[in-house]
Design a protein that fits this description.
Two copies of one chain form a homodimer.
Chain A: E1 3-9, E2 22-28, E3 36-45, H1 49-54, E4 74-81, E5 91-94, E6 101-105, E7 112-114, H2 131-144, E8 151-154, H3 160-170, E9 175-180, H4 183-191, E10 197-200, H5 207-217, E11 222-227, H6 232-238, E12 241-249, H7 267-271, E13 275-278, H8 288-300, E14 308-312, H9 317-325, E15 332-336
Parallel strand pairs in A: 8-9, 8-11, 9-10, 11-12, 12-13, 14-15
Antiparallel strand pairs in A: 1-2, 3-4, 3-6, 3-15, 4-5, 5-7
Helix pairs in contact in A: 2-3, 2-8, 5-6
């Protein structure tokens, strides 16, 4: 039985998360019971939602338990099987956590899914053709439901969700404007991802300045917004919405570290007759096949080649995660484990 | 031609509206052109939305123009007609404004509608069987769309919209909890309107205290909220929402007077996967017949007898309106003109 390095949540953050909240331990993997498989992880996904679960607060998901392996999505290979459902050598995507190996009860619905790495490289199943991509798809298709020619805005545009949102929205004939941090990311968003414009929030430090930049980038106003961030960016975008604009809200990363970030002027929801809807993509499993088919085709055809930030080795996970929370990643943040 | 007393908007408020913003003038009604009718108003409706239009701010409706008659709903009687559509003696509901008479181009769609005062008294067409009632109906039926047994909350519960919301929600088998100002209004909401509970916001001066009171009144959490007020009440209700709760937002009276009131914790929209939707009932004319039919039946059968605050004489309109903005009315605020 191989030795398995794993990161556990050692303490809950007070304010910003820090490296001291995590502890590395090593243990041999357990022997397989009937119906179980042993998966060796190739990539671990790091995602902003993980920060929310580090708090002991009421939320849609139970908090990450203290003293247990950090939860997270993984892709890998079955290296031992006592299940008729999976064979040794199968490539799989699952929820193996911040560790090198996981033992999985393979018959549980949804815990492990076979994937094909012939046309789509394995790591994309944690990004564009995985949870972040489906998140973008749901917000765009099921909440914003844009008509061709409408103007849509997405924050964190160079990230895993934002970049998929842009590709899906362009395929529907929309004008797509991104918001990202820094000139390099903004160049990437327009030049490589094909957005119509991108606003660097670092040169617009408050909602008023950002609102002016949005006015220039969205001359016909904003019809749909995919909210990833919260705070001043959310305020600025709302100030430029058209009547009957739709807002899909699936992350408020700016507020994870402590005090809630207020929304400055909720009266705009009435004034512009907005619809704002929060969602968690794991509660909408019915749409995953349709979303993954479109995303797989976009990536498989080479039309959409999202960037990845890949940290090396299980030891690097906490620092890579803290960097993600501070916007230091560039594209989907992964940890490569082998 | 009768002399017509009318209130004009003399100046825009800075901060709270005051009596000095209005000026009374008197002018003979103009002679009728072909197709016009002269309506003598019996009742003038006073509604919170009028405060919003006194500001010169971007909103869904154009601002009330300075120097012109204050806009507002009226019921009355046709006393002269040069239109084949209306006869002298017809009772009508329209949008005659803060004055004793109005001259109306009767062929314009939607400006004037004949009403039957045999089963429903005239004044109710400005309240329960008029715009406020339809507003409650739209928010309840089209946005909140409750299932029997769900818990719904409405602010300004003793007012025209809130009381209709309660009657419609009880008819659908919901638990309905009101929020109102003062013990007398709360007693009325539970004892006369039949709400299951009512919270007096005056004894709960902040969101935290209000949130505790809501916890007690809504032991199963809140599934739907009809937002009339904004501010601390909105914050407190959001803190008690269940997953997938719906919020219909049609007024934020607490913010009309000046600085926007922030929403303290918009992350709750994500955490509880809320849907928040702003609406203006005049943009949904297609649902008015269905809504008015249900509301007319509730009122006509005597099941729903909403209370009215009736000021006497056109001269009293500004003071009655300012009282409404401060919550001094008790039920639908009207001005009786004859």
């Amino acid at each position: 039985m191989p030795m398995n390095k794993q990161w556990i949540l050692a303490s809950r953050p007070e304010g910003a998360a820090s490296a001291g909240n995590f502890a590395l331990r090593s243990a041999p993997t357990s022997a397989l019971a009937d119906g179980q498989v042993l998966v060796r992880h190739h990539y671990l996904s790091l995602d902003p939602y993980m920060r929310g679960r580090m708090n002991d607060a009421k939320s849609y998901a139970a908090p990450q338990p203290l003293g247990q392996v950090m939860q997270g999505g993984t892709v890998g290979e079955v290296i031992e099987s006592r299940s008729p459902l999976f064979s040794v050598g199968d490539k799989v995507v699952g929820y193996g956590g911040w560790q090198q190996y996981s033992v999985v009860d393979a018959a549980q619905p949804g815990v492990l899914r076979k994937i094909d790495d012939a046309h789509v490289s394995l790591s994309y199943y944690l990004g564009a053709v995985g949870m972040p991509g489906v998140t973008a798809w749901y917000g765009l298709v099921k909440i914003i439901a844009p008509r061709s020619g409408e103007t849509l805005v997405v924050s964190a545009a160079s990230g895993a969700v934002g970049s998929a949102f842009g590709a899906l929205a362009k395929a529907r004939g929309c004008r797509v404007v991104g918001i990202a941090g820094g000139a390099e990311k903004c160049r990437y968003v327009t030049d490589k991802l094909g957005f119509d414009a991108c606003i660097d929030y670092r040169v617009h430090p408050d909602a008023k300045s950002l609102s002016q930049a949005l006015k220039a980038a969205c001359p016909d106003g904003i019809d749909g917004y995919f909210e990833n961030v919260g705070g001043a960016i959310f305020d600025a975008v709302l100030s430029r919405t058209n009547a009957f604009a739709r807002v899909a809200l699936c992350g408020m990363i700016a507020g994870y570290d402590g005090a809630p970030l207020p929304l400055a002027n909720p009266a705009l929801i009435l004034i512009n007759r907005l619809r704002i809807e929060g969602f968690i993509v794991s509660e909408h499993m019915d749409i995953w096949p349709e979303a993954l088919e479109e995303l797989g085709a976009l990536v498989g055809s080479g039309k959409f080649r999202p960037r990845e930030s890949v940290a090396q080795g299980i030891e690097s996970a906490p620092e890579a995660f803290l960097g993600l929370l501070r916007g230091r990643n560039f594209g989907k943040q992964l940890v490569q484990l082998i």
